[in-house]
Amino acid sequence: MKTRITELFGIQHPIIQGGMHYVGFAEMAAAVSNAGGLGLITGLTQRSPELLAKEIARCREMTNKPFGVNLTFLPSVNTPDYPGYVKAIIDGGVKAVETAGNNPQKWLPALKEAGVKVIHKCTSVRHALKAEAIGCDAVSVDGFECGGHPGEDDVPNFILLPRAAEELKIPFVASGGMADGRSLVAALALGADGMNMGTRFIATKEAPVHQNVKDAIVAASELDTRLVMRPLRNTERVLKNAAVDRLLEKERTLGAALTFEDIAAEVAGVYPRIMKEGEMDLGAWSCGMVAGLIHDVPTVKELIDRIMAEAHSIISQRLARFDAA
User: Fold this and answer.
1) What CATH code is assigned to 4-208?
2) Which residues pair with 175 in a beta bridge?
C-alpha cells in the first residue's frame, strides 16, 4: 500500500510504532521495521546520548530497513542533554525522528541538514498547523482515545482526523484507537496517510516487556483506562490498577491543592519495575482505550501482515459492494 507516509519514510506499510517509555528498545523497533512498518527507539528511555548511540547501533544490527528515534522534549528540572541526543541520532545515520512534547523548532535545522525526516506528535489541529509551519515533514494526530498524553481538548479521532485533513498540507498519521485493518481503513477514509500504534505493539511477542504487561492489555476492556493528572493539566491515559485508584483518590481529596509531589509515588520512576519486572500495581502506566480491541499476543510480523490483509479485504470487498450498489 503506497501513501505519502510510506513514500516519505521509505517503508512498505503505512504503520508506525510510536515511541513508548521502556518499550521502544532496539528489539521492538527492528521487529516493526523488518515487518514493513517504521519502528522507533524511544530516545529518553536511554539515560544518556552515549547509551542511545549504542541502542541505535544495536538496532542497525537487527534490521537493514528504515527505523527512527522518538525524542520527547519535556520541561524538567534536570533537562536531558538534548544536543547530545540529537547528535547521537545524526551520527547514527537515523533518517526518521518522531518528536513530541514541546515545540521542536530549535532542533529542526540540524536534523534537516542531516536529511532526517521529522514527524511531530500533536493532540490538536492548532498544534499540527504549528508543526507544519515550522517545517515538520509530517505529524501524528493523537485523538482523545490514545494512551499516554491526549492533551486537554478531549477531541476524539472521528472529529480530529477530518479536521486535520481539512487544514494540513503535509501528511499525517492517526494515533489513538488504532489496532487492526479496520483502524487503518478508517484512518485513510478520514484523511490520514497511515496510522501510529502504541498499545497494540506492546501486546506482541517481540515487545521487550514482562508478560504480565501483555496479559493485562489482553485482559482489559475499553472501559479499563483512566485519566490521571487532569488537575495538573498534564493529563495521561493509563490502565486502571491499585496505584491508579490511590492516585485518583488523592486527586479527589486534595482538589485544587494537588501538587505533583502528592502523586509522585504513583508516577515517578515506576516504568522500569512495571515494564521489566511486571509489578502491575506499582504505579500508573500509559495504555489506550484500544486495549478493548486487543485479544492476542502475535508476533509483530503476524500482526502487521494481518492488518494489511484485513485492510485490503475491506477496501476491495466490503466497501466495493457499497460502491457497486
Assistant:
1) 3.20.20.70
2) 142, 196
Structure confidence at residue 155 (pLDDT): 98
3-state secondary structure of 175: strand
**Cα separation, 122 vs 151, whole angstroms:** 8
Confidence of residue 77 (pLDDT cuts 50, 70, 90): low
Q: Tally Cβ neighbours within 10 Å of residue 93.
A: 12
Q: In Å, what is the CA distance from 189 to each residue of 173, 183, 311?
A: 12, 10, 12
The domain segmentation of the chain, as residue ranges, is 4-208, 211-289
Angle at alpha carbon of residue 17, lines to 311 and 147, rounded to 5°: 95
Q: Rounded to an integer, what is the distance from CA 252 to the centroid of its chain?
A: 29
pLDDT tens per residue, range 150-185: 999 999 999 999 999 999 999 999 999 999 999 999
Report, as an integer, the average pLDDT of 18-32.
97
The CA distance from 68 to 88, in Å, is 12
Separation CA 16–CA 304 (nearest Å): 10
Cβ atoms 81, 43 nearer than 8 A: no
